[in-house]
């Protein structure tokens, strides 16, 4: 699939990204090289994934200009505050070996081990640091991840720049309608991580049956679903045939089948 989503600052982002969560540093070089070789131009990593070094190395050594690759990384969930954010950003660009990022996200509104904690003030301070980096031209777009409506609202009410992205877990059965609506209203692009429900939906009999009908694999159906819902899928794989397959999603899901998929229960709940 080709084409871009456009942020509210007019920066464009390729419609499918290569996710690297859970790809260890020693496999990241090969996986990212395979992705680039097979036409992915959008790579998603994070300081917390501990693979930025080899993600960066793969991009650097591949025959592609820096401006032709869209690189996203993330501020660790536990890192809140203005100076802390500037320091983490520097660590990330050093790891990656780049002098700017295309997109930088607050990884989560709360530290992973304190899920749900109110970190509003810390998020606002981090966001202000990200606005500064953005205004200095060190980041082309800024956003958040795992934010709920109330977390987004706090940024919108207290800061200058509305996030360009919210990256959330999104897959068949986990539609997050209210959040999707809110993001649409504010021109925030929704990126779908775990579009295959980390693999758990691939063996679902209804998904298999529907995929057969379109002559695609379950993974392709699930990735296409994200696009039909105007979210940006970030599938992850370390296998080349899957990496290739996950990008070949140029088909339409019928309204009737979309309706059926929208009615799914969350398999991971
Ligand atoms: P692997 O990396 O071994 O290929 P998600 O993107 O929702 O996080 O799901 C990722 C999981 O799905 C990984 O376990 C990955 O395994 C697997 N996976 C990714 N693409 C495919 C595919 N096309 N067919 C089957 N499994 C896939």
TrEMBL record:
The record marks 74 as: Lowers pKa of active site Tyr. The active site is at residue 49. SUPFAM superfamilies: NAD(P)-linked oxidoreductase. CDD domains: AKR_AKR1-5-like. It holds the Pfam family Aldo_ket_red. PANTHER family: 2,5-DIKETO-D-GLUCONIC ACID REDUCTASE, NADP-DEPENDENT OXIDOREDUCTASE DOMAIN-CONTAINING PROTEIN. Keywords: NADP, Oxidoreductase. Belongs to the aldo/keto reductase family. Residues 15-264 form the NADP-dependent oxidoreductase domain. It comes from Marinilactibacillus piezotolerans. This is Aldo/keto reductase. Substrate binds at residue 107. The keyword Oxidoreductase applies. GO terms for molecular function: oxidoreductase activity, acting on the CH-OH group of donors, NAD or NADP as acceptor.
């Amino acid at each position: 699939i080709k084409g871009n989503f456009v942020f509210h600052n007019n920066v464009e982002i390729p419609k499918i990204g290569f996710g690297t969560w859970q790809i260890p540093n020693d496999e990241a070089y090969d996986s990212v090289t395979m992705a680039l070789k097979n036409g992915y131009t959008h790579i998603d990593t994070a300081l917390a994934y501990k693979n930025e070094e080899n993600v960066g190395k793969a991009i650097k050594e591949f025959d592609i200009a820096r401006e032709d690759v869209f690189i996203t990384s993330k501020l660790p969930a536990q890192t809140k505050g203005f100076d802390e954010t500037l320091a983490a950003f520097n660590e990330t660009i050093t790891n990656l070996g780049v002098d700017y990022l295309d997109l930088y996200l607050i990884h989560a509104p709360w530290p992973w081990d304190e899920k749900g904690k109110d970190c509003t003030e810390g998020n606002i301070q981090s966001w202000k640091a990200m606005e500064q980096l953005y205004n200095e031209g060190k980041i082309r777009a800024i956003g958040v991840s795992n934010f709920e409506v109330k977390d987004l609202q706090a940024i919108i009410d207290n800061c200058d720049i509305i996030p360009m992205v919210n990256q959330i877990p999104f897959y068949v059965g986990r539609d997050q309608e209210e959040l999707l609506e809110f993001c649409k209203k504010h021109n925030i692009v929704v990126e779908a991580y775990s579009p295959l429900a980390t693999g758990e939906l691939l063996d679902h009999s209804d998904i298999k049956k529907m995929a057969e009908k379109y002559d695609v694999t379950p993974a392709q159906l699930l990735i296409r679903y994200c696009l039909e819902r105007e979210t940006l899928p970030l599938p992850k794989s370390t296998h080349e045939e899957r990496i290739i397959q996950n990008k070949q999603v140029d088909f339409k899901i019928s309204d009737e089948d979309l309706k059926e998929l929208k009615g799914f229960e969350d398999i991971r709940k």
